[in-house]
Every structure is written in structure tokens, then in C-alpha cells.
Write a structure and sequence with these properties.
477 residues, alpha/beta, TIM Barrel, eight-stranded parallel sheet, 18 strands, globular, binds zinc ion, Metal_Hydrolase, hydrolase, DHOase/Allantoinase_Hydrolase, dihydroorotase activity
Length: 477
Amino acid sequence: MMITLRNIKVWDTDEVIDLRLPADGADREIDATGLILAPGLEDPHVHFRDPGQTYKESMASGCAAAASGGYTHVLVMPNTVPAMDGATLADPSAPGASEVLDAGYDNVIDYLQHYGEAHGVDLPVRYDLCVAASKGREGHEASDPADWGRYVPGVGDESTWTDAMRAHPVTAMSDDGAAVPEAILDQVLANLKATGLYLIEHCEHHDTGAVNEGPVSRKLGVPGIPEDTELKIVARDIAKARETGVHIHFQHVSTAISFEAIRQAKAEGLPITCETAPHYLALSDEALLEYGTLAKMNPPLRSEADRQATIAAIADGTVDLLATDHAPHTLEEKALGFLEAPNGIIGLECAYGVCHKVLVDGGHISDRRLIELMAVEPARLMGHEPTDVAALVEAWSEPAPTGADGTREPGRNRMLDLTRAGDVDGVDLVVLDTARAWTVDPERFHSKARNTPFGGWQVTGMPLATVIGGKVAFSRL
Ligand SMILES: [Zn+2]
Ligand SMILES: [Zn+2]
């Protein structure tokens, strides 16, 4: 069974081809004029809450959300319960520990690597793991390479690895949710240097405050977070990158002053990269007045000037990539008020549409650049090359149809036939409709969570099919 898309455009060469995908049901043919074939979207910043908080999200629901959002590969953050630090779980009564121990694994990394086996499920998207920088992610003591080094490619003895270990390696380190504390930073950097991992830094530290400090926080009567709380960590870590040569990736950068510091560090040639998230380019702290705690996050939504600076930093290349910081919470938790409600929103299932609306429809970047920001650059950060669509077309397409005299028939496309191609294991693709206008409806999300301020938003740009390993993992076709 197959589905044939006629006249789909390759995202970077603009060649118009026909694409054939394996599919359930009767053979179908679709006029795909105007659709784009691109490497699958990738997100190096997701929270899947598994183990420990699976009432918010699970590996299964999080991966389903990713596939429906056009994502083929994600990096799972370590603020699980227990935290993903590789340490053997000694206390079975500790929160979340029984989920790991009862499945037959003695630490969270092992459990998540073998999640499919443990639960008898086939998770639809690829995922890598991000180890905690501190033990228990508590910020007191650096996590121990003796606990997690064996899961790192090039460090562990890969000849003993299972297929699941190979498929879901530890490729980065973070204490996301909090910045790595000053007191352990040098030891963390030494651990990174010894193992070749890079640091993913949550560059925000404040002891008080719940929303951005300014007219909105005063209007709400909620304690504010000054804008330089982010720059303090960014500047500290830029100095550490200069000193140690360790690659530091800044998460969810949100202020003009941080972008300026990063711009200068990059000009200096330091090993610094950064991301921002859809909400920082689409919303300012004014959104708190409309969406309440659905607009509460950390770092907080900042001023309109910072939002404009975020877009400018995307347009001028200071921002390397877009990540969602997909952070599921229940609506009951979000209803606790500005002080008590947890930070964060989900993002995987509307990120492409929101970013496309603001950035491409807004005239700031091209469709091609948006795919670089959401697919190509995230893949490279995570240490692999995205699927080269044009090379696939070259290698696998049937010859362009020719007439009796050997010349190509005008108006006939080359056919990329994934039902007949050779080794498709590494083929990760997304079919995008860049013109499709749609209304975000959280009730239709595959995520367990509904905490998003974008419900009811009119956006443009929709992922129509997600292909992972040559197979259709999700389809709206
Ligand atoms: Zn964070
Ligand atoms: Zn995060």
C-alpha cells in the first residue's frame, strides 16, 4: 500500500518531485503542489515527565505529540523524578523510583533507554538523553561520570551496548529548570571536558519573583524578575567557555542584553550556541494579562522590546535554533495563581505554525531558514546530520521519464519512492504545508497536557506527515 504525492517541492533545491510513501489502506494519489519536503523537525529541549510525573506526560504521549508536530528526533531533559543522573536508585520509596525499579532497571537512564521494551510500546520518534549536571539535579554536588559515563558514545564500552542503548545515548548535560550553581560549575565543566559532552544551560537565576519586572508585574501586583537575571548566567558562562573551551548551549534566551552578549561572544569565536522558544518571539509579558498563568514560564515572558530583540536575533543569525521547551503541566496546577503555578507551556504541536506565522508571514525570515532553525541546526547541535533530501533524490529516484528520443518528457517529475528504496533506516522527513491556515485547538493535541496560551490562535504552516526511518510515523494526508 502506498500514497503518492505529486509535485512536492524539495525544501532547499526547489526541485519539484513526486514522492511515494508506504501507507495503510488503499493506494492513493494526492496533488501536493505547494507542499514542501524537508528533513524532520528536531527539538533539543523537551520535558516528558517520565518517570515520576506521568499524569502530566509520558514518554508515549510526549513522543506522539512530537510526531504530530512534525518532529522526528528530540532530546529529553533530565528533570524527571527521580532526576536523570545515572545514579543507582537505592530507596524504592522515593518518588518515581518504583516505576524504574519495578520495570527491572536500577537507574533512570537505563530505564529510559529501554522504555520501549519495558512497556511493550514502539515510541514513534527518535530520542536522546540529557544527563543531569548535579546529583539528583539538586545543585549541591556535580553528578558523577562513574554513574553516567558508560552511556556516552566514545566513553562507554559500546561493544557491550544493547540496540536500545545505541538508539538513545546520553549526548548532553543540563540542570534545566535551574542554572548550574557557581559552586559546582568548575567540576561540571571538568566532567564535560573529560567526556566530550556539551553543557545545555538554563541561563536564568532569581531567588524571588514570578513574572517579568515592569508595568505588567506592577499592574498584577506580582513580584517581578529583573531582566538581568538571565545575563548574569550568560556572561558567567561565556567567560567559562573562553576559559575551558567547553561548548555551552544557552536555552530559551529571552532578553536583548543576553543576545548582545552572545553576539559578541560568537564574534570572538567562542564555542557558544543558543536557542529561543516560540513563546519568546510570539508573546511579551502583556500576555499575562490575557492568558494568566498559561503565560507563566521561566525565564519569564519579557517586554515587547525584548520580544522584538528576539526576532532580530533570529533574523541576524545570533539565534542558532528554535526549541520548544515543551513543559507539560495539568490545568489544575496552572490554576494555582501566579506565585504557585508551575512554570512552562507545551509546544511541540503548534511550534511550527506559531513560528511560521510570526517569522515567515511576518517577513523576518524565509521558509527555508525556518527549516534550518527547526530541523538542520537542532540536528547538528545533537551531533548528527539531518536527512539530506536532495541527496536522496539523486541516489534513489527512478530516472526522469524520457520520451522515445531519450529526452526528458516535459512536465514529468523524478520520483522518490520510499516503498522501493534501499536502506531507509536513517530517512527522517516532514511534509509541510507552509500556506495552510489553521486554528490551534489544544483539545486535539496528542500530549496529555493542555497548558498553552496558543489555544484559539490562527496560525499558518502545518506539518502534514512525519516520516521516521522511511516509515510514516504520523500523517494528516
Ligand atoms: Zn529551562
Ligand atoms: Zn526546559
